[in-house]
Specification:
317 residues, alpha/beta, 2,3-Dihydroxybiphenyl 1,2-Dioxygenase, domain 1, nine-stranded mixed beta sheet, 6 helices, globular, binds fe (iii) ion
Length: 317
């Protein structure tokens, strides 16, 4: 067990707040938990906290911040001390909607994070009250009806430096990584849980800093991923990478570009790591050339596009 329980909530920035909200509410099927000061808070029917996604209007797309919940007040103190020792800490805030004191910091690449422990559990309003007491909210069959936030993939100019920071300061476990022939690290799949990936760093093609690759939301079956594809086609949402299965971490996926320009994934599958001594899987450049799980090629923009886009260089899929 590590000091971090899980990643989330996440804040997503959008220059098209109305269309992005429509995407998450109507098409992804998330519920609006509340609104305040230019932000809308959304949740999947299986999220135990009040919200897992904060949407904020902004000039540019990209990641606002990622929350990291500690296992206990003591675990929070240990992680804050470890982050402070790296010199990347920014200090405490009183907290945010639905949670207590939060410690702000940036990873070496500049992405913003907030460490916290105290949260308010979600209490469903009358119209969303579940029949079964082991479910936080009634299942609402709208759009893709995503269950919960699943994982975060961020781009870094130096994957290795950020991966080492996540392992050493945040106590993250490294399950898989890609090492190129020249020794450079192209990707690292880490987790605070037994799920094969939760926090992922991949190389920024343009060697930029602080950018987002994608946010992923969970559904329970592959069929729901395929259905998500059907929903997006008829909603004029750009499918960047049609349903398939990744080789790394083995997740089943469909990737789309939401109206604000950010890449969003509907995902399921993958695997769980039960072995406390699980060796890290290291993929070579030649092995990666084999393609995804079933041998299909990765679409080009998946390697190059991130948010916020780099003007004149980054072309939105
Ligand atoms: Fe993913």
């Amino acid at each position: 067990m590590t000091d971090i329980a899980h990643l989330g909530p996440v804040e997503l920035l959008t220059p098209k707040p109305e269309q992005t909200l429509h995407f998450f509410h109507e098409l992804m099927g998330m519920e609006i938990e509340g609104e305040e000061e230019g932000s809308v808070y959304l949740r999947g029917w299986g999220d135990y906290q009040r919200y897992s996604l904060k949407l904020t209007e902004s000039k540019q797309s990209g990641l606002g911040y990622a929350g990291l919940r500690a296992w206990s007040p003591e675990a929070l103190e240990r992680r804050v001390a470890a982050v402070e020792a790296t010199g990347l800490g920014e200090g405490w805030s009183a907290g945010a909607r639905g949670r207590g004191p939060s410690y702000r910091f940036r990873d070496p690449d500049g992405h913003r994070f907030e460490l916290y422990y105290e949260v308010e559990r979600y209490e469903a309003p009358e119209h969303l009250r579940p029949t079964l007491k082991n479910q936080p909210q009634k299942y609402v069959p709208r759009g893709c009806a995503v269950k919960r936030f699943d994982h975060l993939n961020i781009l870094a100019s130096d994957v290795r430096a950020n991966r080492v920071f996540a392992q050493e300061a945040l106590d993250y476990r490294l399950y898989e990584r890609i090492e190129l022939d020249d020794g450079e690290e192209a990707g690292a799949w880490m987790s605070a849980t037994i799920a094969a990936h939760e926090l992922i760093y991949t190389q920024d093609h343009h060697r930029a800093n602080g950018r987002l690759h994608h946010l992923a939301f969970w559904v329970d079956t592959r069929e729901e991923c395929l259905r998500a594809g059907d929903i997006f086609v008829d909603s004029e949402i750009k499918i960047e990478f049609a349903p398939s299965r990744h080789a790394v971490a083995q997740g089943f996926f469909v990737y789309v570009i939401e109206p604000g320009g950010n890449r969003i994934e509907v995902t399921t599958g993958g695997y769980y790591v039960y072995d406390p001594e699980q060796p890290t899987v290291v993929w070579t450049e030649a092995e990666r050339r084999r393609g995804q799980f079933w041998g299909n090629a990765t679409v080009e923009t998946f390697h190059t596009y991130g948010t916020p886009p780099i003007e004149g260089v980054d072309h939105q899929p």
